[in-house]
Amino acid sequence: MKTILNYRKKFIIPLIIAFCSTMAFISCSKQGNDDNTPPLTYGTFGNASGSQQNPPVSTTGSASLTGSYNSNTNVWEYSISWTSLSSAATIIEIHGPATAGVNGNLVFAVAISGGGTNGAQSTTVTLTEEQEADLLAAKYYYTILNAAYPAGEVRGQITAVTR
Fold this sequence. Notes:
Largest sheet: 8 strands, antiparallel
Number of helices: 2
Strand content: 35-45%
Low-confidence stretches: 23-33
Order of helices and strands: HEEEEEEHEE
CATH class: Mainly Beta
Strand order of the largest sheet: 5-4-7-8-1-2-3-6
C-alpha cells in the first residue's frame, strides 16, 4: 500500500506543477491588458503658422492637422484645414525626420484638389515601420505650398498621443 501511495505522489506532484505552469503561461499572453502593452491607436495633431517655417514667413495664414494612426495596420488617416493663405494652396508636404525648426527630407506629398486660400484636404497613407517610429516620436512636420510661397507658407510639427 505504501508503494502505491509513493507512486501516486511521484506522479501527481509533477502533473500539478505542469498544470500550474501551463495556466501561468496562458495567462501571460501578449494580448493582455497589462501596463506594458503598447496602445494600438494614436491621435495626431499639429497647428501650423508661418513663424514655424524655416526660414520664418510673415503671413496671416494658419492650418490645423487632426488624424488617427493605427499601429496594427500602419494606416494613418488625417485631415488638414487651412485659412487665410496668401494664395491658393497647391500641395501639402510631410517632411522628416526633423524636430521643430529643423528642415527634413520630403517623405510624401498630397496634391490639393480645388485648393483655395481657405480649404481642407483629407488623406490616408500606410507607413513603414521607420516612418511609424518618426511619426510617434514627433519627427514629422507638414507644410502647405502655394504660388506665393513655393517652399511653404505655413508649417506645423505633428504630434501623436495615445487614445
